[in-house]
Amino acid sequence: MNTDLRPALIGGNWKLNGMPGDCRAFAAELAKKLPEGPFPEIVLAVPYLLVAEAVETFRSLPVRVAVQNVSVYESGAFTGEISAQQAKAAGAEWTLAGHSERRQLFGDTDADVAERIKKALAAGLRVMLCVGEPEAVRAEGGQEAWVTNQLTSALADFDSANAGRLAVAYEPIWAIGTGHTATPADAQAMAAHIRGCLAQLLGGSGAAVPVLYGGSVTPENAGSLLACPDVDGALVGGASLKAASFASILAAAEVAP
Ligand code: PGA
Prior knowledge:
Helix content is about 40%, strand content about 15%. The radius of gyration is 17 Å and the shape is globular. Helix 9 links the parallel strand 7 (about 210-215) and strand 8. By secondary structure, the chain is α/β, with parallel strands linked by helices. The chain starts with 8 loop residues before the first strand and ends with a helix. 2-phosphoglycolic acid binds near residues 171 and 216. 2-phosphoglycolic acid (PGA) binds near residues 235 and 237.
């Protein structure tokens, strides 16, 4: 992390986990365990139906609320969809875009991801764009080209004036939920590569975009990942479900140089 250049950002992603009441229990526990400030920016992506409760519950804590996806549509006959405006009106400030589970399990294309980002920005949300390669691509050394392509298509129409509302999370698919975390060297190499892509795509404004690492981040490995100069934070799945482990990761962000 280099907090002189970019704000540190720790995201949590609850995925399809949590019931009403869980936000309150989590917040009460987190309030007891939060390290002393100054805090990194903290963003928790909860299921849609928990957004209102999360917004209310986390109001007294330095935690902002995100949704995990927004529709490519604004309104109309699109059963089961949630629009960016609805997420914003419910109090969310951020959305994830392009999480690999959306891409792999629900068929999100690069074009969908670009459209979701457009709709999110238009509604006033900030965007955490997720990119990352499958294992077979890394085995052949193709990870940088893969991530370049994902960034190029997701940000094709991105107005660099919005760079302050963007974060990019590098989440290699083979590391998500597997316990097989990328090494700090691999995370650093890709974060530096992403920083170069952002400079190409967004010009000088790209330098302000935080680049996070995600994929089996735990209290045990967070410190060494966050110590990488180009890794500005983490996107945490499983370890964000318990306030104690999430708080330990926040503490690692605080002490990382
Ligand atoms: P994980 O998930 O920390 O459980 O690997 C990360 C993510 O999918 O954002």
